[in-house]
Structures are given as C-alpha cells and as structure tokens.
Write a structure and sequence with these properties.
Blueprint: E1 7-10, E2 14-15, E3 22-25, E4 33-35, E5 42-44, E6 51-53, E7 60-62, E8 69-71, E9 78-80, E10 87-89, E11 98-102, E12 107-112, E13 116-121, E14 125-128, E15 131-134, E16 153-155, E17 163-167, E18 181-186, E19 189-190, E20 198-200, E21 210-217, E22 223-227, E23 246-248, E24 256-260, E25 274-279, E26 282-283, E27 291-293, E28 302-310, E29 316-320, E30 324-325, E31 335-339, E32 344-347, E33 353-357, E34 361-363, E35 367-372, E36 377-382, E37 389-392, E38 395-398, E39 409-414, E40 419-421, E41 430-437, E42 443-445, E43 452-454, E44 461-463, E45 470-472, E46 479-481, E47 488-490, E48 498-502, E49 506-511, E50 518-522, E51 526-528, E52 533-535, H1 541-553, H2 561-572, H3 577-587, H4 593-605, H5 611-622, H6 627-636, H7 638-643, H8 646-652, E53 654-656
Length: 657
C-alpha cells in the first residue's frame, strides 16, 4: 500500500479499506455487494446481480453480467452496467441533473452539483429520488409528479346484508392512471381478503364505519392511493336464531324432561335464556325451569319447550322445541332399602321391619307374611286391613304383634299385589328378604365418668355415655356405643385376627379367628388389641397428633407408635393443641425463631427457606406470635395434611403404643 495500486479480489461482499483502490468480485457466494472508499476506485462485479457503490473519488464501476445496481456517489465517475438489466442510482430528483447523450458511443453524461459529472453506458434504468426513468426516456422533458385528482365514493346502503361498491369514475392522474386495486377498511383497519371493488356487509361490520382505499402505480412509477370518506356506521339487521332446542326424556308420568341447546346460536348475540314449558302449545303456569317433571295433568298431551332471550341488539327472540307426548306411569314400584338390612344378624327382637321403595305407595289387596327361616308361618298381615302395616310416603313398616325370638332366622314375603304405586302399578312381590335376631345378652350403661363396661358371651349392648370409657363386648355380636369422650373398644386377641371397616355411623369389627363375633361400634374412637392400639378420631385428637408429627418431625414420624401414643395421651389428658405443638418443637431442640421457621418450612416444602422467605415468618414470631400458634397453623395447612394423607388415615386409622 502507499503509492502503488492495491487490489482486492473477493468471493464475498466487501468494502475497500482506507488505502486500497481496486476491488474485483469473483464468482463465489452468489449475489455480492462491493463498496469503495474516498479514493479513485475501480470496482468490477461478477456474473451475478451485484450492488456496487463508489462513494467519494472519481470511480470506475463495471457491473459485468447480471442485473446490477451501480451508485457512483460523489466525484466524476465512469459507470458501465455491462450485460442484462442494470440500474444507476442518483440521490436527487430528476430535475437536478443535466443529461446529454453521445449517440455515436451510446454514452450518457449526467451532471449535477452534488455528484459531479458521470459517464454512463450500458445502463437501462436511471433511479432518481422521485422516480425511475428508462434510459430511452431520459432526454424526454420530465413530467412533474402530481397527486391524483377526483375522488372515490361509496355506493350503496350501510346496512348489514347490503353491498357497498367503490365508484372511482372521477379519479384521474396527470402522470397516468395505472390499474386500480381495492382494499376495504373497517374503522380504518384493513379487512382481510376484502380486495374487490364491492363488499358485502356482514355482522362483523355492524356499528363500524367502512371505507375503501384505491391504489395504483402512476406512469412515473409512483405508488398512489386515495380513500373514500367513511360510511355511516353499519346498521344491524336482526338475524334469526339458528340451531334447535332438543327435548330429552321419555315423557312418562313422574319423569323429568330437559332440553339441549348446544346448537342454538344467534349472530346478534345469544342473551340469557329463559324457559317456558308448554302443554298442548299453552304455557304451564310456573313451569319456567330448565327441567320439568311430567304430572297427571300432562298425560296424553303434547309437551314442548319455548326458549326466549333478548339478543345483543335488543331484539326479543324465541325458539320452540319439537314435541313429545306425556305418557302415564306403567312401571311397578321397586324395593330399594331394607331395615334391618337383608341378611342382617343381631337384629333386636323388638325391632320393626321397614321396606323402602322408589316411589310413594298405597296398600294393595294381597298379604305380607313373616316366616321362620325354615318357612313356618309366624304371622300373616292383610295389606288392605291390618293395623300392623303402615305406609308413610314410600316406606312400608311391619310391626309384628309380639317380639321375635332370640337367635332366630326370619323371612319376609310380600305377595304380588300387597302394595302398589299411586298410579295403580302393583309391586311384583318379594320372597327373599331374610334376617337373624341377636342372642340374649347383657345391656350396660355407663355414667358421667370414665367407665369400664364388660359384656358376656351373648349379643350385648354397651353404652358408655360421658367420659373416656373402655367397652369390652366379649363373645357374640355386640353393639358398642361410646357416647361422649374418647372411648375405646377392647379385644382379647392380636390385631391380625380382626377386620375393621368404617361405616356411615362408626365401625364394624369382626373376629376372624375366635368367638368374639362381629361388633357394631358407634362413637368409639380407639381400638385396643392385645398387641397394639389404633386411633380413628382423625377429626379429633388423633388427627391433631398426626398433623403435628408431620409438621414438626416430618411424615416418617407417623410410623413411630411411641410418638403417636405420647401425643394422644397428652391431648386425651387435657393438653391443648397449641400447648402440644409447643412441646413438640421444644423436643427438637430448636429454640431460636429462625431455627423454628427453618424446621417447619423444610418439613412443609421439602427444602430450607431462603433468607427472604424466612424473614416475614420470623418477624411474626418476633412480633409476639407464639411458637405453638405458628406450629398449629403449619400443621393445619392443606399441604401438610396432604403430606400425611389425612384423608386416608381417616379410613385406616393410626397405630399407637
């Protein structure tokens, strides 16, 4: 570099450095650009479409093959486009340049104050800031760029469903009017796909003003556009609802009818639906819900439903369903529940017998028979006349004239016409309802204190009443009712010899290897076996103990029978939930507020808290919240109860020592 001429040969787009004069683009990376500097540059393109810029200096730009774009910049430049369709670029408007043509050499001289005097040949297009001119038109006097004249008008009514058309008959342009294109606008925003000279107004246009923009390219290559004035807001035309209302239901007396409206729609907006059920086309007073129960008055009539609403533009609309005929009830009543339950054991000898059906009943003309398990008749009841048979609603009650025998099996039979429904459909009959009474046993009732009640070998009834009672049924199938307090049922064998199941009122405990029978427990919170104990009051002290163990010692501590036993003993003895929480935290050795928060947080969320996470909780303790109160809050938190599976524990119980 220096006084010699330096040249760069490049296969990629390049800009000359400060002291380099020449650049040659060679075939390599395809369409390339080459840029000079302030020196007198020689830049030569390759066979592709190049963009060549000289910048300052008196440059020589050679396009070569391809459709090239050449810009000499300032200085007196020599520009040769080469083959194909080439463009030379000037920064000013056409009027700022003096152009002459040497016809013998087909060379143009382009002179301006800003860009010097350029010699141009083999270039087909001259691009000025105000337009592109063909070289053949370069010496034709320039036509000044003028805006379009005239206007674009809308033709048609601005009403939904009507068609607006663009009228551009008065549109003119001194520079030449090219082919017109159209774009319809809604509230000034282009409507996708709306590019014809006419536009059909739809629901989406309602309330908005529409206009059309007409565009074209004039004879000087200038893009022009002109928009119409906006229309009046498009008026809505009420759209009828579409879809249907479909009835569901068999129409039988007493059955429910309901409707599906999933296909119902309205372009104007579907308002809140109201319902009116119709009988033979007439409104049924008060029948305005989404469902309707077929009544006696409907039988034989055509039923339908009219759904009404006010659409989004205030128009009242209604849609009528199809019809179905209301039919009389022809289905016989069905027995759904028994008391005592079918195959029940230990039934009290003085118990009444009740059979519940699926609908209201009337007495029939048949009989009800109470038999022994062997089939011997114990007592017969006339359905029509016996005072020992009563019907209340859908329940038939049988009141035997005398107590049943202890430890005896019984069967109840109903003839086919013993009872019927209110529509005359008779019950089909019953022959397989059986139960067994309990053995003779003892009955003991506790008092206000902590009682120990013992049964015998029979079917006993033990009632603990108030206090924390111990109930031992012994042999037989016993009824154990704990009453108030924390009560326990005591069994002689190991836990593995029993099954225990939750019932709607308490527990059922059955001895599978001995003679203790199957006991029914109500209001009993604990089960004591010879080898272990189980607590089931998960809504009471057992639940509080489990939650505190999970919060303070982590979930694994629930398997520690001694820990569970300590918690239950303290709570049963009168220690408060909050006091036990404070004792539990103290047992961990954590004394500072920060350590307590870290302990509880880690057990709850599975990782230690950050400083920012712990800070507000520590502040609560510093501000006077007790450790016990905070621990109770954490223990009762839903995440902790999920960790310890409190719902599952309520079914399975929790073991303690």
């Amino acid at each position: 570099m220096g006084s010699t001429i330096d040249k760069v040969i490049s296969r990629v787009s390049a800009t000359l450095g400060q002291f380099v004069e020449q650049l040659e683009l060679v075939n390599g990376a395809g369409q390339l650009s080459g840029t000079g500097n302030e020196l007198d540059n020689l830049i030569t393109g390759n066979a592709e479409n190049n963009a060549i810029t000289g910048l300052g200096g008196n440059d020589a730009l050679n396009g070569g093959d391809g459709d090239d774009t050449l810009n000499g910049g300032s200085g007196n430049d020599t520009i040769d486009g080469g083959d194909r369709l080439d463009t030379v670029v000037y920064s000013g408007v056409r009027a700022n340049y003096v152009v002459t043509l040497n016809e013998a050499t087909a060379t143009y001289t382009v002179v301006s104050a800003a860009e010097g005097s350029d010699t141009v040949k083999n270039v087909e297009l001259f691009r000025f800031s105000d337009g592109v001119v063909l070289s053949s038109n370069l010496l034709v006097p320039a036509v000044p760029q003028t805006p379009p004249t005239g206007s674009v008008a809308l033709v048609g009514s601005a009403t939904q469903g009507q068609v607006l058309s663009a009228n551009a008959e008065t549109l003119a342009d001194a520079n030449g009017l090219g082919g017109l294109s159209f774009q319809w606008l809604r509230a000034g925003t282009a409507i996708a796909g709306a590019t014809n000279n006419a536009y059909a107004l739809a629901q989406a246009d309602v309330g908005a003003s529409l206009s059309v923009r007409v565009s074209y390219v004039d004879g000087l290559g200038q893009s022009e556009s002109l928009s119409s004035p906006p229309s009046a807001p498009v008026a809505n035309v009420n759209d009828a609802p579409t879809g249907s209302v479909v009835l569901f239901g068999n129409g039988t007396l007493g059955a429910s009818l309901k409707a599906s409206v999933t296909t119902l729609s309205d372009q104007d907006g579907l308002g809140a639906l109201t319902y009116q059920w119709l009988r033979a086309g007439l409104a049924i007073a008060g029948a305005t819900g989404s469902t309707y129960v077929v009544s006696d008055a409907d039988v034989g009539s055509l039923m339908s439903l009219r759904i009404s609403y006010t659409d989004g533009f205030g128009a009242s609309e209604s849609v009528l369903s199809g019809t179905l005929i209301a039919l009389p009830d022809s289905v016989a009543p069905v027995a759904t529940a028994y008391s005592p339950v079918d195959e029940a054991a230990t039934v009290p000898i003085g118990a009444n017998i009740a059979i519940t059906f699926n609908e209201p009943l009337l007495k029939g003309s048949g009989t009800v028979l109470l038999k022994s398990a062997s089939g011997a008749l114990v007592e017969s009841f006339s359905a029509a006349s016996s005072s020992l048979l009563t019907i209340e609603g859908s329940t038939l009650t049988i009141d035997p004239s005398a107590d049943l025998a202890f430890g005896a099996g019984y069967r109840v039979e109903l003839s086919a016409d013993a009872v019927k429904d209110v529509y005359g459909n008779v019950f089909v009959g019953l022959t397989s309802y059986n139960f067994t009474t309990g053995l003779s046993g003892v009955t003991q009732t506790g008092g206000a204190g902590n009682d120990t009640l013992l049964g015998g070998a029979g079917h006993d009834a033990l009632f603990g009443r108030a206090g924390n009672d111990l109930l031992t049924g012994g042999g037989g199938n016993d009824n154990l009712e704990g009453g108030a307090g924390v009560d326990a049922a005591v069994y002689a064998g190991a836990r593995s010899g029993y099954t225990a199941a939750k019932t709607s009122t308490g527990f059922s405990v059955s001895n599978t290897v001995g003679a203790e029978g199957s006991d029914t427990l109500v209001g009993v919170e604990r089960l004591h076996f010879s080898d272990t104990k189980w607590a089931y009051d998960l809504d009471g002290h057992a639940g509080q103990t489990a939650k505190l163990l999970g919060a303070v010692f982590a979930v694994a501590a629930l398997a520690n029978e001694q820990y569970v036993g300590i918690g239950l003993s303290l709570l049963d003895g009168g220690t408060t939930y909050e006091a036990l929480a404070s004792l539990a935290v103290g047992a961990t050795g954590k004394t500072s507020h920060a350590d307590v928060v870290a302990l509880l947080w880690t057990n709850l969320f599975g990782s230690a808290p950050t400083v920012d996470q712990a800070a507000p909780v520590v502040a609560l303790l510093d501000g006077g919240l007790t450790v016990g109160a905070l621990t109770v809050l954490v223990a009762d938190y839903s995440l902790n109860t999920e960790h310890i599976n409190l719902v599952g524990l309520a079914q399975s119980g929790i073991e303690f020592a």
